[in-house]
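Protein modeling request. Please complete all fields; requests missing the sequence field cannot be processed.
Requester role: graduate student
Desired output: 3D structure, token encoding
Chains: 1
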Amino acid sequence: MKDYIERMKKERQELADKQEKLMIFLRTHFGQLDKTEWYLMSSQTSAMSKYIQVLDARITHAELKENQSGLK
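Delivered output (72 residues):
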């Protein structure tokens, strides 16, 4: 598999790991955060989720292109 696809997959996994840690932090420290901190961190998890979706689409597209070029 092409290096750039592997790099995207690694980036996606690292981002998913960070997102999961942040979501756990939000759940376990809910009472310790003020409303602004909670809102900002919650917004960050949403942005990370969107970024993961974009990476998933890019990975799928790149893999399809690689598979098609291998058929030629």
